[in-house]
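Handout for the seminar on molecular recognition.
Each group receives one record of this type.
Step one: identify the two inputs.
Step two: read the structure output and locate the region that could contact magnesium ion.
Step three: write two sentences on what you found, then compare them with the reference statements printed after the record.
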Amino acid sequence: MTTNVAVSEHSRKFQKPQGFTIWMTGLPGSGKSTLAGILKQRFEEDYGRFVEILDGDEIRKGLSRDLGLSREHREEHARRVSYLAKVLSRNGVISIVALISPYKVSRESARELIGKDRFLEVYIKASLATCEKRDPKGLYAKARKGEINNMTGIQDPYEPPESPDIIIETELGTPGESAEILIAKLKDLNYAL
Ligand SMILES: Nc1ncnc2c1ncn2[C@@H]1O[C@H](COP(=O)(O)OP(=O)(O)OP(=O)(O)O)[C@@H](O)[C@H]1O
Ligand SMILES: [Mg+2]
């Protein structure tokens, strides 16, 4: 009896923090995973928040391991990631999605599913030339040699966001500086950290 009273007292006092989804879209090598890592650390250490990174590459090793790189499969991959982001962010978690998500329709569906008030489309912007020069995974080189044939930006399309909530130009500063700009913009948009 006493325990039940204690539990209900607790649940009354416990305020779930505002969860939301930072959906980072951009070309391969634009900086999504790099920024996701920095942001996670900042949100956890400086703001005491629970954070989950939903990185396209990692999810392809598990939940999406049956999927390839056709348009249909890329859309299905984004749909699965949207569901994960939805259930996490409605429970107070900050979900950081790092996913090329080349198709506008997938990103629009994600916004619909997750909810407009807890979804931010963040365009991680860098020119193809810069991404190709960075080539952190060596995939652009492989695509140019014809060793892979579905590289976004080379053989496969990338539809840039038309009106993203936030644009981060990763050619204009270090990863740390880009992360600070993103956090400042979140605050401008009244997201409570
Ligand atoms: N301002 C910046 N923000 C993020 N990354 C930057 C920035 N400036 C330079 N970089 C570099 O760009 C590269 C981005 O690689 P990263 O793996 O984060 O890209 P990605 O968008 O996750 O690519 P992919 O879609 O292939 O997973 C890294 O080597 C990073 O150090
Ligand atoms: Mg990445």
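Reference statements: The longest strand covers residues 119-125. The chain has a mean pLDDT of 95.
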